[in-house]
Design goal:
The complex is a heterodimer. Chain A is built from 14 helices and five strands. By secondary structure, chain A is mostly helical. Chain B has a six-stranded mixed sheet, with no helix packed on it. Chain B has a five-stranded antiparallel sheet with strand order 6-5-19-18-17. Chain B has a two-stranded antiparallel ribbon with strand order 7-8. The longest helix of chain B is centred in the first third of the chain and has 28 residues. The chains are: A mainly alpha, B alpha+beta.
Chain lengths: 467, 493
């Protein structure tokens, strides 16, 4: 039962733990199935015929598990079950919202939801799972991506620029491109491409960027000429903010860059510079652009004057929904989340707050937190610096995204429109989230898989098995 | 890089901790504040998603549902229904999507199920998966008396009028009818615009259908106030007993030189009759003189003991009668008018019933009340009303003297209500006092208001107050309505 190693690195666990993953996945699917049953019974008192979607969903997740078993046998056993649980609960909530006021169910119709929203979400889940499998098959080691650093950087720039050029403005933010009745949000994928680009770029340049310049107030400032990249990233995020009026994407993009810069260089000064630039940029745009300023007003004074029925209407509805849920919630299908405009996308967390209560959303946050923690754990354990930086960046941006949207809808910070990973209605976010999980699975597999056969020359690395 | 990743992990942890703290704040500590925000749609809608409690009339010993919530087919929304519409409207009030009146308002938390006393019941329902439901409010109203009262008012030629009947021994209100009334079913619509239209129409209606005349002091008591005047005179020793003679000149010259006349300027018997005769003939001058001797403060003191100028929660708040301290109210010439209910005093039918009830109950006025019991949906009693004495206006001896006089009003062939509430009209022994309140204008311009205050003693006692605006002579317009209510209540119809 002891494994001895001459390495000072943590001992890689020899067990693949795929059975653990399967057990956890079955547990997650059982939770989703029960949630679906609760929602259906809560709505109409009987089980609806849409149960087939849940079965299809379960089969897809088992398929994903088999793919992980085949292509990433040493992956972290919790990543897939956690993602499956979130995605499944998202489908249940979208089903519940879609049914509201329809087919004899109580409530009012969520008018901007199609009657096939659940089906579409299941379809997008399928696309997401295919993307997951594709990533696992095509990218056998995360560091392969390092070769495409600048290619993906260019792809990210194009993806970010497209909506500004040909995008459709939805609720003040221009982040969508539409093909007929079908629309995608390129920013979701841009974020992933950027994470790869930053990881590749920073691994190459981190030694230079870590060089100390002057020391002010006990903090080593970087050299002035090394400020270039951070200023470019800042400028780009401001351009997104100005041309696409999308605070959320801009904040995630810049936050991702600064966090990865800090991890790569270990210089706290980058954090301070980044934070300072972000606050200054936001302040300037808030003063210049009405759309940005109104978000602050809605946050600071949601209930004053005409705000509750005007600019704060949506966030106030979300907040009152959460408060209405209280500690235990109304139960799935028994609240009134349909009062909140666009509840199925940015505000879906408030619908969970209303129907699952404080206990339910605390559990959701813990699931997100666990997902982030597993990602960071993979980053800590993996040896390759590129994979390390990539996994840490992706985990951080996932945490930041949850913080921005959940903090926004619960009035902790001003509201910025980003999707809730895995939960919100919409294909781009879902597929991007699955790709993110695929990358974390890939990195965690690298971190946990046993070292290759000992190579004679390296002397110290012989692995001794003692089973 | 691991050290930096650990720090970033701490930053992630901090973000999640902040989120957890914040949602705890929103969903555990701020819930009441947010629930109370004006325009909270969920709180507003919630009230229709479970069954509001019923209001039942139990005064006849059986339950008659007078307000209930029924499920609208194919929805989970309940709709308020008043099976008898305008008949019980003064009791139930209405329950619109925005506000309530009457019992619907005062018992709202119980009917809606939000009262803390229902917390345990609600928790049990939650745990056993039962639908949340409001409490049932049982009112003291006797359906027989109530329907007789409302029908009598409807058939009274369109006068604005109202009736209150109560049990003099307990204070339980047996009937409370007002005409014109309104149909509360018209106000239960979920359509806010339609509701506003209907409501505004009712508010603008010159006949004031929303006014609960039964408990609104809107009428001068007229001669029925002689119950109070004679009670004060007996109690203060001004009159020894019912055969004590009183001076009853026609006309009475007041200290300020004006004259006060009897009805129709008719002399009162021999001008110096026993008080009992002055009472059943309803001579104004005799009681005006008594009033001057008693003085206004004493008269007002007795009026207060009979419930005037008092605020009562029956459970909705009412002031059954007013005896205001207007300018010059202590002037003996004005006190003379006060003593015969013709100055600035105003009463409601409830006040008239309370005059009679106090006399029937040996001088003790019981506090009037409408809510007998409140029951949880599982029928356990969470509130029950025990009768309480409100005041002791007179001693049993004085009450006996006054009731003797009230007996003569209906049983002496010369009594003002002999024809309409005495043996020619009914086999029931009714004790009463008529009132005919002059409005100061000629009868052609504005007919007098008719008032009748009466009771029936015995094993099944009842006290009734009736006022008919512009009904003319009290005995003719008001007394027959009281007789119908009493006969219905006692099962003699």
């Amino acid at each position: 039962m002891t494994a001895a190693s001459f390495s000072d690195q943590p001992v890689p666990m020899p067990r693949a733990r795929r059975r653990t993953e399967l057990a956890m996945l079955v547990f997650a699917l059982a939770v989703v199935l029960l949630a679906y049953a609760a929602a259906s019974l809560g709505l109409s008192g009987k089980l609806s015929g849409l149960s087939v979607y849940i079965l299809v969903y379960a089969l897809m997740m088992i398929g994903a598990h088999l793919a992980v078993r085949r292509f990433a046998p040493f992956a972290d056993p919790l990543l897939l079950p956690l993602a499956a649980l979130l995605n499944g609960l998202g489908i249940v909530m979208i089903y519940r919202l879609q049914e509201s006021g329809r087919n004899g169910n109580p409530g009012t119709v969520v008018t901007d939801m199609s009657t096939s929203a659940t089906m579409l979400q299941v379809l997008w889940t399928a696309v997401g799972v295919i993307a997951l499998v594709a990533v696992l098959v095509l990218i056998r080691e995360a560091r392969i991506l390092q070769r495409y650093t600048y290619t993906l950087g260019a792809v990210a720039l194009v993806l970010l620029a497209i909506p500004a050029l040909i995008g459709t403005s939805v609720n003040g933010a221009k982040v969508w491109i539409t093909f007929g009745s079908f629309s995608i949000e390129p920013g979701e994928f841009a974020r992933l491409a950027l994470a790869v680009f930053f990881a590749g770029y920073l691994v190459a340049k981190r030694d230079v960027l870590a060089l100390a310049g002057r020391r002010v107030l006990g903090i080593d400032l970087p050299r002035a000429r090394d400020l270039g990249p951070v200023l470019i990233a800042w400028g780009a995020s401001l351009l997104i903010l100005i041309f696409e009026t999308d605070i959320g994407t801009s904040a995630l993009f810049f936050g991702l860059f600064v966090a990865m810069l800090y991890i790569a260089t270990q210089r706290k000064s980058w954090l301070l510079i980044g934070l300072g630039l972000f606050l200054a940029g936001t302040w300037l745009t808030a003063l210049t652009f009405h759309h940005v300023m109104s978000r602050f007003t809605a946050w600071l004074h949601p209930f004053s004057g005409s705000n509750p029925t005007g600019i704060s209407y949506q966030p106030v509805q979300g907040l009152e929904g959460m408060a209405f849920g209280g500690i235990f919630g109304t139960g799935l299908g028994q609240g009134q989340p349909y009062h909140t405009p666009l509840v199925q996308s940015d505000f879906i967390f408030t619908a969970f707050g209303e129907e699952l209560g404080l206990v339910g959303v605390m559990a959701l946050l813990l699931i997100f937190g666990l997902l982030v923690q597993r990602g960071l754990r993979a980053a800590l354990a993996v040896k390759d610096p590129f994979s390390k930086l990539l996994a840490a960046g992706l985990s951080f941006v996932l945490a930041l995204q949850v913080f921005v949207i959940v903090g926004g809808v619960s009035f902790l910070i001003p509201l910025t429109g980003v999707t809730t990973p895995f939960l919100s209605e919409g294909g781009s976010s879902l597929v991007a989230s699955w790709i993110l999980i695929a990358l974390l699975i890939r990195v965690s597999n690298s971190a946990r898989q046993p070292a290759p056969q000992p190579i004679q020359d390296e002397g110290m690395t012989q692995v001794v098995r003692a089973a | 890089m691991n050290r930096a990743i650990l720090r970033i992990s701490l930053a992630c942890l901090a973000m999640f901790v902040l989120l957890l703290l914040n949602i705890n704040y929103v969903q555990a500590f701020e819930t009441n504040k947010l629930a109370g925000e004006p325009g909270n749609i969920r709180i507003f809608d919630q009230q229709f998603t479970y069954q509001r409690g019923s209001i039942v009339a139990t005064g006849d010993g059986s339950d008659l549902v007078i307000a209930k919530s029924v499920l609208i087919k194919g929805t989970n929304t309940y709709h308020r229904v008043y099976p008898y519409g305008p008949v019980y409207a003064p009791v139930t009030g209405f329950d619109t999507i925005y506000s309530q009146t009457g019992i619907e308002a005062t018992e709202n938390n119980l009917l809606a199920g939000t009262d803390p006393r229902l917390a345990i019941h609600n928790l049990t329902s939650l745990l056993t998966g039962k639908q949340k439901q409001g409490a049932t409010v049982a009112v003291t109203i006797s359906p027989r008396a109530q329907e007789a009262a409302y029908n009598a008012l409807v058939n009274d030629g369109g006068h604005q009028a109202a009736v209150v009947a109560m049990n003099p021994r307990t204070g339980a209100i047996l009937a409370m009818a007002s005409y014109p009334s309104f149909n509360p079913n018209e106000l239960t619509t979920f359509d806010g615009t339609q509701l506003n239209d209907t409501y505004n129409k009712l508010v603008r209606d010159p006949s004031q259908p929303l006014l609960n005349r039964a408990v609104t002091p809107n009428f001068p008591p007229g001669s029925s106030f002689k119950i109070v005047t004679s009670s004060a005179a007996f109690s203060t020793g001004l009159l020894a007993n019912t055969s004590t003679t009183v001076a009853a000149p026609q006309p009475l010259r007041l200290p300020n030189g004006n004259f006060l006349n009897n009805d129709g300027d008719i002399p009162c018997a021999n001008g110096n009759p026993p008080v009992i005769e002055a009472f059943y003939l309803s001579c104004n001058t005799a009681f005006a003189k008594l009033g001057i001797k008693l003085t206004a403060p004493v008269l007002r003191d007795y009026a207060n003991k009979f419930g005037m100028n008092q605020t009562l929660d029956i459970p909705f708040q009412v002031e059954p009668g007013l005896f205001p301290e207007d300018s010059g109210w202590t002037d003996p010439s004005l006190t003379a008018f006060s003593a015969i209910g013709q100055f600035d005093d105003e009463v409601s039918p409830l006040q008239e019933a309370m005059f009679a009830a106090a006399i029937e109950n040996g001088g003790t006025l019981m506090k009037p009340y409408l809510v007998q019991q409140v029951l949880t949906p599982s029928l356990s009693v969470i509130q029950s009303t025990a009768p309480t004495a409100f005041s002791h206006p007179v001693t049993p001896e004085v009450a006996s003297d006054v009731s003797q006089m009230m007996y003569e009003v209906t049983h002496n062939p010369a009594g003002t209500a002999y024809q309409t509430a005495g043996p020619p009209a009914t086999s029931i022994q009714i004790y009463g006092k008529t009132g005919t309140a002059e409005s100061g204008l000629t009868p052609q311009e504005s007919p007098d208001d008719a008032v009748f205050s009466c009771f029936v003693p015995g094993a099944n006692p009842i006290a009734v107050g009736v006022i008919v605006k512009g009904g003319g002579f009290g005995a003719d317009a008001a007394a027959p309505i009281a007789v119908k209510v009493i006969e219905a209540y006692l099962g003699h119809s």
